[in-house]
Amino acid sequence: MTAQKKMITEKEIRIHIGKNIERWLFAGHVADRHINATAKELQARLGKYSNESKLISRASSFLDMTGGDDIVNGLAADLQNQSGEILKWVLYGKKEIAILRFKGFPAGVRGITCSISEHDFFEADGYIAILCKNEQEPFYLLNAYPTIRKA
Questions:
Q1: Which of 37, 43, 77, 111 is the residue whose CA sits 20 to 30 A from 66?
Q2: In 10 A of CB 36, how many CB atoms?
Q3: Is the pTM higher than 0.85?
Q4: Residues 70/84, Cβ–Cβ less than 8 Å
């Protein structure tokens, strides 16, 4: 925990995001499940169990026409724009996880969602990014996925 309490600045948060966003997005779960997944791939996930033995009842994907470049750059910019809030969480937040909700999408990016109870796809109207504190670095992006806000 002491590594998290060392002084860090908002500028360092932005640099940390820019330096690590590709690794966070393309080194695991986000790339495997939520970047340019086809409708068929999303539907195939529904009704199965995750690695944590939870039933997958919803699936979603970020979509772009650049093979993921717009997604990487857009999510990095959105997170960097929240660097003040992220800094407060890193320094003073009691929870190990921070959930950031974004309305809309970066330029060139859209999102789709589907659920086990619907047989259709819907345009997402925003997305969630989940950050997790880490002793080796201030935090990392645990997950990011498109959502539909409840009315």
A1: 43
A2: 15
A3: yes
A4: no
**Span 97-148, pLDDT tens digits:** 999 999 999 999 999 999 888 778 899 999 999 999 988 889 999 999 999 9
**Domain residue limits at 94:** 2-147
* Distance between CA atoms of residues 141 and 115, nearest Å: 24
Show contacts of 64-67: CB within 8 Å, 24+ apart: 64/36, 64/108, 64/109, 64/110, 65/108, 66/108, 67/36
Specify the residue for token string 């986000």.
30
The domain total for the chain is: 1
Give dist(CA 105, CA 99) in Å, integer: 16
Q: Which two tokens stand for residue 38?
A: 């086809």
> Is 12's pLDDT higher than 90?
yes
Q: Residue 60 has which token pair? A: 């979603």
| Beta-carbon contacts of residue 101 (< 8 Å; ≥ 6 apart) | 126, 127, 128, 147
Q: How far is CA 95 from CA 89, 105, 110, 119, 139, in A?
A: 8, 26, 30, 37, 12
